[in-house]
Amino acid sequence: MSERMFRSCGQTTPFEDVRRTRLRALWLRMSLVLLMLFALGQNSQGQENCYSTTPINRECPRFREEVDWMDFLARRNSVDYPIDLIFVGDSITHGWDTLGESVWDQYYGTRLAFNFGISGDQTGHVLWRLENAPMNRIKPKMAVVMIGTNNPSEPADTALGIKKVVTVLKEKYPEIKILLLEVFPRGQAADSDVRKRVQAINESLRKECSDMADVTMMNLDSVFVDENGQIPGTLMHDYLHPTTAGYELWAKAIEPEIEKVLGPIPADPPECHGQQRETGRFNAKNEIFKSGSKVDVLMIGDSITHYWEREGVPVWNELFKDVSAINLGTGWDRTEDVIWRLEHYDFSKVDPKAAFLLIGVNNSLTSTPVNIAKGNRKICQILHEKFPNMKIYVQNVIPWGEGDLNGQNEVRRRINEEIVKAVDGLEHVQLLDLSGCFLTAEGKLDTNAYLPDLVHLTQEGYERWKNAIQKYVDEIK
User: Fold this and answer.
1) Please, are residues 359 and 302 in contact by the beta-carbon 8 Å criterion?
2) How far is Cα 468 from Cα 475, in angstroms, rounded to an integer?
3) Can you tell me the distance from the alpha carbon of 303 to that of 328, in angstroms, rounded to the nearest whole number?
4) Active-site residue (options: 91, 102, 119, 192)
5) Residue 419 pLDDT greater than 80, yes or no
6) Known active-site residue 91
7) For the chain, which has fewer Cβ within 10 Å, the N-terminal or C-terminal residue?
8) Catalytic residue status for 238
């Protein structure tokens, strides 16, 4: 029977049957391929675009403070600010600034360390921060990462987010070594749902990150969990955030890994080590020393001292009309900058009788009060070594900023308390408390003495400063 005859009878031809069979087979194969490609695409999308790996904008005051800090460092340094160690995480890491502060000072206070932990953060928030903060301003050698407990997604998804954070850090800093901490245990009981969830996250995290180059993983369950599987309240007051004792155990547990990269804990903080910040101003002042010009008084500090040459000029001329003084104040200076300058000025032809030191405001943005005070002490020791008979007047950090405008600058109070302790007993050193010169009767910052930035002084402010130290200058005549 011909093909035409099959059609005329309403039947399919053998040829059509063969074609249809082949078409069905081809369609089946194509469908299987499409399904496989779709599955692969879904898997790839799950890894690259899942909730935990997607940057999420979460502006908050602390983040803005960190950005301002990095921008400040960029303005005052011609090179990237030296940061060796960065901590990345959520409120558990953020807590190094509160309950963990004393432990931080002990283990990281003398290292170039930066706490980038922000309460409430999830992996997506950290990813957004890493893309939107000026991370190029720092070049850490090592990062300690612990994030993920706040993620609402599935454990495997959360693990991908943590891996993404590590990957981004490695991309930004190709030479960095990363200590990746598994998510800390939470929930008092070993069989609690939240504990099981954390364990599931960590199981997935090991599969994702255990083979990553330059990444060391650590599980600290044994630090926070007792032999019965419970978290003692003495180590985590809410079974989530460490107590001071918890931070102490955390620091001890990871110190061997940090020492592998950064070496032992330095004896002195960065604030006690000279940092080269050579400027034209340094060179100009050094030429005066080299010339052998008469120098009776050294005025040492940052921009507040520097501006004796601006708003304070007429007051300076009156204060030092009978003695020879040189202004070594330099804008943006910190204690370590002052130390470098004192170590590199050519003092061979001068023999000043007195020095007035006021330094620490710029340090307050990144340093602890204890370290700022140690920096002041180191400066006094250098000055005394260079000029054994010189009288050194350490002026406390004067009021500044909105906090003091409201009479509530706790940072300044703590800095000055530490300075008092740090210089106590040093030979030829006398403390001068200038605070009262710039405060109202109610103890608040007197804006008449300040420029609009509430940091630098008006001519009236310099007049008040002059009146406070006039008698000490008169003793030099």
Assistant:
1) yes
2) 13
3) 10
4) 91
5) yes
6) yes
7) C
8) yes
Task: Kindly tell me if the per-residue pLDDT of 16 is higher than 70.
Answer: no
CA atoms within 13 A on the CB side of 55: 10
Residue 314 has pLDDT above 50, yes or no: yes
Please say whether the beta carbons of 200 and 155 come within 8 A.
yes
pLDDT-derived band of residue 74, with 50, 70 and 90 as boundaries?
Answer: low
For 202-218, write each residue's pLDDT tens digit. Answer: 999 999 999 999 999 99
* From 94, 241, 384, 456, active-site residue: 241
CB 360 within 8 A of CB 376: yes
pLDDT tens digits, one per residue of 180-193: 999 999 999 999 99
What are the pLDDT digits (tens) for 146-159? 999 999 999 999 99
Look up residue 386 and give its two tokens. Answer: 């260079």
Whether residue 330 contacts residue 302, with contact meaning beta carbons closer than 8 Å, is answered with yes
Give dist(CA 375, CA 331) in Å, integer: 17
pTM score, two decimals?
0.74
pLDDT at position 380, please?
A: 98
- Strands 354-358 and 325-327 come out as unpaired
Residue 408 and residue 14: Cα distance in Å, rounded? 96
Amino acid, res. 215: V
pLDDT at residue 42, as a whole number = 39
CB 383, CB 391: distance < 8 Å? no
User: Other C-beta atoms within 10 Å of 109: how many?
Assistant: 21
Catalytic member of 17, 68, 226, 238: 238
Question: At residue 367, what is the residue type?
Answer: S
Asked if residue 142 lies in contact with residue 261, where contact means CB atoms within 8 angstroms, the answer is yes
Q: Report the C-alpha gap between 185 and 2 in whole angstroms.
A: 79
Q: Is 17 a catalytic residue?
A: no
One-letter amino acid at 83 equals I
Residue 418 scores a pLDDT above 90: yes
Of residues 13 and 248, more confidence is placed in: 248
Q: What number of other Cβ atoms are within 10 A of residue 144's Cβ?
A: 25
Rounded Cα distance, 174 and 196, in Å: 34
